[in-house]
Task: structure prediction
Amino acid sequence: MTVHRPRTSRTASRTSSRPRRLAVAGLAAVLLVGAPAAHAADPAPATTTTTTTATTTPADPRSADGTLLGQFVPRGDAPTTEVAVQRAEDALGRRLAVQRLYQRWDDNLLTAAGPAVQRGRVPMLSVLPKRLDGTVVRWAALAQGAADAQIRAHAQQVKGLGPVVYLTLHHEADTAGATYGTAAEYVAAWRRYVEVFRAEGVTNVLWTWVPTTGALMRPTTDPTAKGFYPGDDVVDRVGTDAYNWFGCKSGNTAEWRSLQHVTEGLRAFAWNHGKKAVLAEWGSVEDPAQPGRRAAWLRDAFDLFASWGDLEAVAYFDTVGTCDWRLGTGLAAQTYRELAAGAALHPRPVAWLEPSATQGAGTLTLDLRGDRSTGTASATGTGVASWSLDLGDGTTRSGTGQPPAALRHTYGAGTFTPTLRVTDTHGVSASDTRTVTVAPAPAVTGVAERNVTTTSADLFAWVDTRGVAGTVTFEWRDGAAVVGRASAAVGARSGGQEVSTTAPRGLVPGTRYTWTVTVTTAAGSASREDGWLTPGPPAVRVMDPAYVGPTTAQIRVRVTPNGADTTAWVEWGTTATDQRTPALALGAVTYERAEQPALTGLTPRTTYVYRVVAENVHGRTLGPVQTFTTGG
Result:
């Protein structure tokens, strides 16, 4: 493995080993208590019809001449962690170069860190050997190969997070205690973890060892930091979680300590081992007696970043851990935002594409903002020489200088990935890709009537709102007259949703109703029609005889059973309908049945009367009396 020697300080070069040894010795007597393991205007754009290709690529710390600014952002009430980070970036007024993440042993690391990589942030990822169900994976088991299958899974997941990932196995392991094992077992577990990754061909990891500040200070002359250091051949970066506690944690120091003081051990240890340093976490509480003291502490911290040539990345812990480290909205937050916008913490160009909306329906007109993109060693929103925006629908815009603050574009239905590519004044490029989804019109995919009685029915429909919330309306009619209506709200889902109404009540037996269901969203409407028949007495349609001869006749029987088991017959005679044919079984169908029974033994040249009679459980229907005369 290649050992990356630290770059020289931006304020002084180190040319002598003696001053270094003296500095280390001078720090040896300082004792610090570690941080908590608390985590689970613009030129007019030109429109063309060509398509550019660009991908979002995180800044590679190994080629960045400066410190990458990152942060831990809790999900909070946001729908996803990525949305929470986007909100944090908007509040901060700049993109984060590094995103701090904490995962458990059986988490999918690609799923967890993938959104960060997609937006161009370098994941700073810690993996805790504890499963989601709370069971611990002891270091000894890791070292002995018992967990190699999961390590291989981690390796393949991390391989998909290129180009580079800061990866830590069990940060602050020196405070884990006997539950996980001994220092020697931790070292063996770390080395096994790295060994399996290398065997899997993973080359995009910066192995980042993160002990507490205390472990780095007791004593700094101990090259193994109390025995937890895995070795120079399996460690690329040395980090720590550096905090100004100021008495916020019981039993810890109440002294106000600068970040420079807190990180003395890290600086010495990283230098001794030829490693660049990272602050995997850092922060300060406020001094209630001096409300501006925390802001001044932050200014001093950023001055430290500017002078610490071997500091590669910092990630502010913007949440509540053992103490409340949140920046909030006061003076400290304003100061942090001001300092974060400075040129020193932009060692690489950053593209920042901000659509005014990412979801819509039908058509979506939005503004695409890119003016906060930044060039190398430039303040936020400056330093860009040229830009191009692939809108993801076959068109592009481009221009010189900073990208526009509001480039308006309209999308039809579909999913699009607009990509902004910027090139700074040094000729270095960066890109940012977003996803815009526009839902098509909804659809009615099915209808049905159930539980139909003589006076009621339940109506069912299956609709697809294509991911947009909407309304479903049922309307039922007797002929052209609307006799009822009911509506229901439907959620923003893709795929079929079942919607029903039990409102059709007080209906007329034996009546055919038609009904329409209409689903409406912001993308449009869709309808479908169907019908049903309420059960009732059968219906008899008047028909002339099919045939009349001298001695026989065939009578047309046309009966609609109206959904109940029905029989029908013909009553006939010369002066009264005193004779009848055998009953015809017509079933319980809702459509018209046709039969043609014969009357035989008739007298030639005689007039006969007849009628069709039908009956079911809802009643008997008598057709009108009709006549025919036999031939002869």
Notes: Confidence is low (pLDDT under 50) at residues 1-55. Residues 440-533 form a domain with the Immunoglobulin-like fold (CATH 2.60.40.10).
